[in-house]
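Problem statement: downstream parser choked on a complex file, so we are re-checking the raw output for the iron/sulfur cluster run. The parser issue turned out to be on our end (a line-ending mismatch), but while we're here, posting the original submission so the record is complete.
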Amino acid sequence: MKDEAENVSDGSSRRNFLKKVGVGVGAISVTGIVGSSLLKGNEAKAKSGKLVKLLSPEGKLVEVDQDDIKSAKGIQPADNETVEQHKLEARAGLPNRKFAMVIDLARCKNARKCVEACQEGHLLPKDHEWMRLYLLQDDSTTSKYWFPRPCFHCDKPMCVSVCPVGATYKRADGIVLIDNQRCIGCKFCMTGCPFSARVFNWKDPEVKVPEGHVYDPETNIPATEGTVGKCVFCADKLRLGELPRCVSACPMGVIYFGDILEDTVTNGNETERFSKLMTDRAGYRYREELGTLPSVYYLPPTQRMFPVESGLEDTDKSIKDRYKKVGPR
Ligand code: SF4
Ligand code: SF4
């Protein structure tokens, strides 16, 4: 098993895997489409000559020629897809996926590239942070550490339970979204979320939205006054087989993203078995005791790569001020 796992995270295979599959695990489905492409790959002689290791629907590692890898049906938006069709797909989610994020707290140094990439990609004003960096300290005897917090896309999301109009919903692939065209701005979901992951749009966005852009719940662009926004796990990127913006932007490789059904996550450079990472690094979910079953996992900040102070060196004063009073929870 060890050898198999190492094969997956090995050099060129991994790069090919990421290049062809985009999100690594995300652009290939576990059943059906991937199954057929894997079978096809096993039966066919290598065409490009570059073999890629993938996980089969039965959980076995198999080798396929990279030219035989196909995107799962529904991943690429159809050219003739109507807005209404897309909205239905945005509500259903991608088939046969269960997306998850793993955040390695040992690597984070508050570089804030994740926050910036998220704001830029979703046309957010500077005071709206769907990804937020906290400075935490668990006990007065222990050190502080940086804690990136996106939406946790819980499997039992309280925000969804309390929404009176079905504006916020959970998809089959695990992503929780908000349809701003249904949202009535009651803020029940903001109160219901124990992680403060939601932001209220007090006004229409100041950032200019491209002309003719049609509202898409997968990006929440354009935001509308009187509605709620939050991290969308970059559902639009996943549909294209690409990694979420924050994952790609992080220079430290802090954020891994992938599909639990394929037991694989990647930060774009390193691809790991999700289960092995959890076991070897004592992964956990924040406030597990609440029972909301987040899709975001953390690796504890042990043997950290940077002293916590280095995360304040290049930080604006306005941001630094947030962290003045940090103490044990
Ligand atoms: S603010 Fe919008 S998304 Fe949140 S509970 Fe109310 S209607 Fe639903
Ligand atoms: S997954 Fe996408 S929406 Fe969520 S914090 Fe990262 S960049 Fe923002």
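For whoever reads this later: Residues 2-68 form one domain.
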